[in-house]
Amino acid sequence: MDTRELRDAFGRFATGVTIVTVNQGGQPSGLTANSFSSVSLSPPLVLWSLARNAECFAPFEAADHFAINVLNHTQQELSTRFATKDIDKWAGTEYALGDTGAPLITGAIAAFECKVFARHPGGDHVIYVGEVLRVAVSGDAPPLGFYRGRYCEITLT
């Protein structure tokens, strides 16, 4: 199977956009991810996946907690920054540390503070399952969307 064809097919599934964060040894780290999904209400579980070759792989592998920040439609630049390699992603980023120590991005429309529940091998990725310890919902702004390799507007009807 052609990987470009597979990527194009995956891109036909519209998603929201998140920044997943961790604070390991007093050093914040994070990345843009659209692999986020709810798993269970009881216990409250979510999942996301991390590429094994991601520059922030080591801090996530060492961490016991992480946060998932759901971006609003005005945070495209922030999403792009956290998807870019070899830059200071945190320069100018407004955030506060949550109760678990993970950074919570200012302006996110929802945040999930999680304890690592499980890690599963998933090909060239690791699938993280997190037990949700705390949630925060902020404002009524529409979410930032991603479709066919581009940011998109999600309209509510």
Walk me through the topology.
Blueprint: H1 3-10, E1 15-16, E2 18-24, E3 27-33, E4 37-41, E5 44-51, H2 57-62, E6 65-70, H3 76-82, E7 95-97, E8 103-105, E9 110-122, E10 125-137, E11 144-147, E12 150-153
Antiparallel strand pairs: 1-11, 2-3, 2-6, 4-5, 5-10, 6-9, 7-8, 9-10, 11-12
Poorly predicted tracts of residues: none
The topology string of helices and strands comes to HEEEEEHEHEEEEEE
Question: In the residues, how many domains can be counted?
Answer: 1
Strand order of the largest sheet: 3-2-6-9-10-5-4
Please tell me how large the radius of gyration is.
15 Å
User: How many strands in all?
Assistant: 12
**Structural class by sheet pairing and helices:** mainly beta
Helical fraction: 10-25%
Strand content: over 45%
Mean pLDDT, to the nearest integer, reads: 95
Q: What's the number of helices?
A: 3
Structural descriptors:
Pnp Oxidase, Chain A; mainly beta; 157 residues; 3 helices; single chain; 7-stranded antiparallel sheet
Description:
The chain is mostly beta strands. The protein has one domain (3-153): Pnp Oxidase, Chain A (Roll), CATH 2.30.110. The protein has three helices and twelve strands. The protein has helices spanning 3-10, 57-62, 76-82; strands spanning 15-16, 18-24, 27-33, 37-41, 44-51, 65-70, 95-97, 103-105, 110-122, 125-137, 144-147, 150-153. A seven-stranded antiparallel β-sheet has the order 3-2-6-9-10-5-4. Strands 1-11-12 form a three-stranded antiparallel β-sheet, with no helix packed on it. Strands 7-8 form a two-stranded antiparallel sheet. The protein is globular.
